Amino acid sequence: MPARKVYLDHSATTPLAAEVYEAMKPFLQERFGNPNSLHSWGREARKAVDESRASIARLINAEPREVIITGGGSEADNLAIKGTAFALQGRGRHIITSAIEHHAVIDTCKWLEKQGFELTVLPVDETGMVSIADLDAAIREETILVTIMYANNEVGTIQPVREIVRTARAKGVRVHLDGVQAVGHIPVDVKDLDADLLTLSAHKMYGPKGVGALYVKRGVKLDPLVHGGGQEFGLRSGTENTAGIVGFGAAAELANRRLEEGAVEEESRLKDLLINGITDKIPNAHITGHPVERLPFHASVCFDYIEGESMLLRLDAAGIGASSGSACTSGSLEPSHVLLAMGIPHELAHGSLRLTLGKDTTEEDILYVLEILPKVVSDLRALSPLGKELS
Amino acid sequence: MPARKVYLDHSATTPLAAEVYEAMKPFLQERFGNPNSLHSWGREARKAVDESRASIARLINAEPREVIITGGGSEADNLAIKGTAFALQGRGRHIITSAIEHHAVIDTCKWLEKQGFELTVLPVDETGMVSIADLDAAIREETILVTIMYANNEVGTIQPVREIVRTARAKGVRVHLDGVQAVGHIPVDVKDLDADLLTLSAHKMYGPKGVGALYVKRGVKLDPLVHGGGQEFGLRSGTENTAGIVGFGAAAELANRRLEEGAVEEESRLKDLLINGITDKIPNAHITGHPVERLPFHASVCFDYIEGESMLLRLDAAGIGASSGSACTSGSLEPSHVLLAMGIPHELAHGSLRLTLGKDTTEEDILYVLEILPKVVSDLRALSPLGKELS
Amino acid sequence: MYSEKVIELFMNPKNAGRIDNPDGVGQVGNPQCGDIMKIYIKVKDDRIEDISFETFGCASAIASSSMVTEMVKGKTLDEALKVSNKDVMEELGGLPPQKIHCSLLAEEGIKAAIEDYRKKAGIK
Amino acid sequence: MYSEKVIELFMNPKNAGRIDNPDGVGQVGNPQCGDIMKIYIKVKDDRIEDISFETFGCASAIASSSMVTEMVKGKTLDEALKVSNKDVMEELGGLPPQKIHCSLLAEEGIKAAIEDYRKKAGIK
Ligand SMILES: Cc1ncc(COP(=O)(O)O)c(C=O)c1O
Ligand SMILES: Cc1ncc(COP(=O)(O)O)c(C=O)c1O
């Protein structure tokens, strides 16, 4: 048994907050009604769904009517992109995205390409930033959608979303932002941003897995992805996941409170402690992503000469949960498309490590990582044939 | 407060079984890992997902690899139909369905019609049965899918699924069965049936809402509906709803046990008691659906001269939860397409009532309903201008 | 979904049933759409002296019928004709959007009954 | 995902590091793909007297390296050449499908080291 358990993989998923679970409980027990039923069981479920929708809306400064609840962030991304593609195909068939999107965006765009849509994939610089000039140049008469992520899951870089929206909307093009990693962690205000579509996912912000949302600005037309009974204002059919939605609502309330209380600043301080500790203690460590415009809980680094999966498993043996963009963690051959798009060479990309902090992360946790990680890296380097000339 | 609370709307949704909730609990607390993570948190989640998938597979006699978990029954229906349409559009663009499908099937088919697919909607007889001869005649060279429900949610009629599958497959056409109302309640064996695709929904069988599954026979190719990280064998991306999946697995175990123990027969006995009681005690009551080939927990009836919503609300005031295919319950103008397709006249269809029993329904519950319902009907008939010549 | 007032009137409607020898009867709606409202009135000195309804329809149709009959009882015919569906909705504490037609039916029912009375009485 | 044996060898690999003045060195894999295995051997009387490895790669690459070096140590070169990736996998208690190439790398690493030795020794 490891001396300590330190979970630093909050970008992958977060634990359910205790208060979120408490809010969900009754809906997993006696309040089991279908919100579409007219009887008392149904009405109490409907009320809970409505209230939760209002909480989620409040978190991003939207109207409740603009929040479409889905079965997760990936589904919301698919709804935003395919929903736009099918609704606007009469107007044009060109979509713009970036090289560092989540697969829920990239693979959706690629599928549409097979259905006859055209795709432009914007490059990013070495910090993971999209260029506004590139975006502006890519917009054409037939462009119906710009879909770019708010903040990146692998390297934490926050895009210049305000300028992205402004640039696209100046030319009358709809904008979707994948906000899965951002919402609940940094202030996001859809009125201020003026984006058309924004993806949220509950389990990235201390809510339950399997529930997400798409913000759809009033007046923005989409084809549904899931047709049927007409739930969610006709945009996402299916019996509502009441317990999950109530959990999402409670998580939104929690996030609102944390943002107001500045709890995120403490996370950011610990993240800096971690990043500085890594670069101080470990030679040949390269922090990835933007130095300033990054998620407050997000540290990512590439180490020369060693491979990510072996780092993860050695860290895991010491009780530390982390992740990597190494090909070996995904079973594919290519390492993370995000790191490669940022110009990081293949062999270095294989040595990537992501440590993402959460609301319960303590300074002791960080100090523990800073004790374990240097030894893991040096042990694995000792096993490696690479870089031996340097040591 | 009503004297008694009697929930008879199990076709709409079922309560979560206590043992299902117990199974889910750890995954809403300390076992919060993302099954895609390599560390210990992720591995324990992956194991739970795998085991649950095996339980679901066992319920329908499938291989675990053939069970694709989705965010509900509607999504599974959409995946089956759109997934087939997009995968096989090169081979043909004709789809056959029936007039009494759930909206998750009908509306999906109608959307595909707008995308250039052709649709044949088979009629049903007055018991809600599709005719095999009609099906056989409808199959054409370009037919790529037959999608027909296993058992109907509004009137409980069980289709001749074996003959449907045999007829379609004799001509090399793929078959999807919407098994949402059937699975867990009557024995369903995919090997025996030889169907290609079968939809399941957890919350209709004492599992959680927001999780469903599509059985996809080995070798059957589909385009995904939700693209992304490649979860669920590439057919349904998105971080797995671990707690929901574990709940679905536990619900499948429970259903298996109930089916083995013949618990369903008691449900069926109470259903007959209810149906016979209604026709005995209430004049001008017309049982809808098939007299024999019907779900064992399902009673449905139309009453002359009165309207469904007002029945529901009067029953609700007496503590009884029921549903209706009346237009007024859905806010639309047309009453249930299912009842109309069975040749029931509009005004009678407005007077429909559905009472669906569950595992905790008792004889006392049924007797209570048989005490309250006749009075509700006669009170509303007294208020009604219709049928006065007869009384 | 429904206000307390709607539920109360639906559960315990006032003026339900038929009046013997009514002076006017109005029927609106149709059974295909799931709503029929039949209004019976007794008129004395150009005032609605007695009124009742029979309704086939949902809770809001029944509550609207009951409400409108209460509202016009004792009013002159011209006053009664001024009662609009908005007034009925207001008194009911609102109706869900898809149920607004029920209050319209109530307004039309009264109009139809008065028209029937005036026709029978030879009043133009 | 990994067998206990794989994890054990990955955490505590045997024969890790370099041998001074090896008689043969084989390197397989490439850093682009995230796997490099380097095998060092000492040969005496046509037998592998000593062996070690250096590996850049995932847990299964490291475990496979460690396992294959244990398996061939003390064997004649011809015996060592007969050790296949299947044998390595079997001894490891299996590998996940997407990791089978690691055991192949181990087989190839030994072959490359022996080839290098024979080339240097002028053996055909
Ligand atoms: C026959 C049938 N198909 C599909 C569905 C949709 O399932 P879900 O509510 O899980 O989306 C339902 C229930 O609503 C149903 O009864
Ligand atoms: C940026 C981003 N978009 C989308 C997703 C998909 O969200 P979900 O796992 O809820 O489907 C994730 C997380 O996996 C993500 O990090």
Q: What's the layout of helices and strands?
A:
The complex is a heterotetramer, with two copies of chain A (391 residues) and two copies of chain C (124 residues).
Chain A: E1 6-7, H1 18-24, H2 40-59, E2 67-70, H3 73-88, E3 94-98, H4 103-114, E4 118-122, H5 132-138, E5 143-149, H6 161-170, E6 174-178, H7 190-193, E7 197-201, E8 212-216, H8 242-261, H9 263-281, E9 285-287, E10 298-303, H10 308-317, E11 320-321, H11 327-330, H12 337-341, H13 346-349, E12 352-356, H14 363-383
Helix pairs in contact in A: 1-8, 2-8, 3-4, 9-14, 10-14
Chain C: H1 4-11, E1 24-30, E2 35-44, E3 47-56, H2 59-72, H3 77-81, H4 85-91, H5 100-121
Antiparallel strand pairs in C: 1-2, 2-3
Bound molecules: pyridoxal-5'-phosphate (2 copies).
One pyridoxal-5'-phosphate (PLP) is lined by residues 72-74, 77, 102, 104, 149, 153, 178, 180-181, 201, 203, 212 of chain A.
Structure report:
The complex is a heterotetramer, with two copies of chain A (391 residues) and two copies of chain C (124 residues). With 391 residues, chain A is of the alpha/beta class. Chain A has 14 helices and twelve strands. Chain A is globular. The two termini of chain A are 33 Å apart. In chain A, 60% of the residues are buried. The mean pLDDT of chain A is 96. Chain C has a single domain (4-119), classed as Sufe protein. Chain: A (Alpha-Beta Complex). A three-stranded antiparallel sheet of chain C has the order 1-2-3. In chain C, a hairpin with a 4-residue loop joins strand 1 and strand 2 (35-44). The mean pLDDT of chain C is 95. Chains in contact: A-B, A-D, B-C. Chains A and B meet through helix 2, helix 3, helix 4, helix 8 and helix 10 of A and helix 2, helix 3, helix 4, helix 8 and helix 10 of B. The structure holds pyridoxal-5'-phosphate (2 copies). One pyridoxal-5'-phosphate (PLP) is lined by residues 72-74, 77, 102, 104, 149, 153, 178, 180-181, 201, 203, 212 of chain B.
